[in-house]
Amino acid sequence: MGKAVVLHATGGPEALSWEDFEPGTPGPGEALVAHEAVGVNFIDIYQRTGLYPLPKLPAVLGLEGAGVVEAVGEGVTEVAVGDRVAYAGGPPGAYAEKRLIPAHRLVPLPAFLSFHDAASVMLRGMTARYLLKGCYPVGPESVILVHAASGGVGTLLTQWAHSLGATVIGTVGSEAKAVQARENGCDHVILYREEDFVAGVREFTRGRGVDAVYDSVGQATFLKSLDCLRPMGMMVSFGQSSGSVEPFSPGLLASKGSLFLTRPSLMEYTRKREDLLAHAEDLFGVLEQGAVKAKINQEYPLREVGLAHSDLESRRTSGCTVLQV
Ligand SMILES: NC(=O)c1ccc[n+]([C@@H]2O[C@H](COP(=O)([O-])OP(=O)(O)OC[C@H]3O[C@@H](n4cnc5c(N)ncnc54)[C@H](OP(=O)(O)O)[C@@H]3O)[C@@H](O)[C@H]2O)c1
């Protein structure tokens, strides 16, 4: 018998309880992973509160982890017992010492990458990869706006975009976060709780606007972000840390300059195994070169994941967060 953090009913961070947990033995196509480290992401908060409903409760949350394969079920070819592995994406179940997972979601870990770093960057780093290469092709000519540029995804996205030669404008919630956003490679930083970020972007781009906006903040920034784009620019709305975006008419995109809009998810971009491996390989490549660093600014014991949730949702965190098992 091991331990896990179990959610019995949706609610606040106090709804997460540390309990005995029996992970079971792997069925066909499954692997049993003994975690060394586990990631914590904003999507876990959406699932805890019920914004993203879970198929059933009680449930073990968590979509990201790294560890060692302890057993495999019938027909598993992707990994073997003893392999160092990591994963990001569904199904939930990472907030546990050990868990079962479909083996096709596991990625072998390269020797240079620690379990801690892997568990903190797999989900956010592969997200950064599809945002920069799948949603809009970012390169040396690109000028982009990244909201929450010192947050988890923001930190990896900004470093990676900078390494591709792009010009990055970042928004942040405090002076301390502005320092971090500059270290991440932002060319210009706007404190969006104090300044009008549309005016800041228009001034910095001399009226042109940006090629793409990466908006994970949602309700508080979505409409104004459309005003930051150049004609035919790409609005990438990939999260809602401030609340869900209100419904609007597609005519708005025409009136603001024939804009494009996408609302992507990592699960879709990595659904096929070859896409999952390609995303992971690219991420491992930039980490190994040092172009992107896993900036782990918060660590908590697994059993205290509720505290990690409250810190994340109260804007007290920056960079990545990891849970020690
Ligand atoms: N679609 C996908 O595939 C995908 C994948 C991964 C993550 N995401 C999304 O990306 C976003 C970032 O995820 P993350 O885990 O890396 O979190 P994070 O960015 O580290 O944390 C959220 C940050 O958002 C900013 N924020 C602005 N308004 C906020 C509010 N009212 N409440 C809370 N935070 C607010 C805060 O930064 P400031 O203080 O600087 O404002 C806060 O630190 C989330 O929305 C998540 O759902 C989407």
Largest beta-sheet details: 7 strands, mixed
What's the end-to-end separation, in Å? 15 Å
For this structure, the CATH topology of the largest domain is: Quinone Oxidoreductase, Chain A, domain 1
Rg calc: 20 Å
The CATH homologous superfamily of the largest domain is termed Medium-chain alcohol dehydrogenases, catalytic domain
Helical content stands at 25-40%
- Helix/strand-derived category reads alpha/beta
Structure in a nutshell:
This protein is of the alpha/beta class and 325 residues long. The chain is built from ten helices and 16 strands.
Describe this structure in words.
Helix 7 (251-255) links the parallel strand 13 (229-237) and strand 14 (260-262). Strands 3, 5, 6, 7, 8, 15 and 16 form a 7-stranded mixed sheet that branches. Strands 11-10-9-12-13-14 form a 6-stranded parallel sheet, with helices on both faces. The chain has 10 helices and 16 strands. The protein has 2 domains: 2-122 and 270-324, Medium-chain alcohol dehydrogenases, catalytic domain (Quinone Oxidoreductase, Chain A, domain 1), CATH 3.90.180.10; 140-263, 3-Layer(aba) Sandwich (Rossmann fold). 47% of the residues are buried. It has helices at residues 42-49, 115-135, 152-163, 175-184, 197-204, 222-226, 251-255, 266-269, 273-289, 305-313, and strands spanning 2-7, 16-21, 30-39, 59-60, 64-72, 84-88, 98-102, 107-108, 143-146, 167-172, 188-191, 210-215, 229-237, 260-262, 296-301, 320-324. It is globular, with a radius of gyration of 20 Å. By secondary structure, it is an alpha/beta fold. NADP nicotinamide-adenine-dinucleotide phosphate (NAP) binds at residues 41-43, 123-124, 127, 148, 150-154, 172-173, 177, 216-217, 220, 238-242, 264-266, 312-313, 315, 317. NADP nicotinamide-adenine-dinucleotide phosphate binds next to helix 1, helix 2, helix 3 and helix 10.
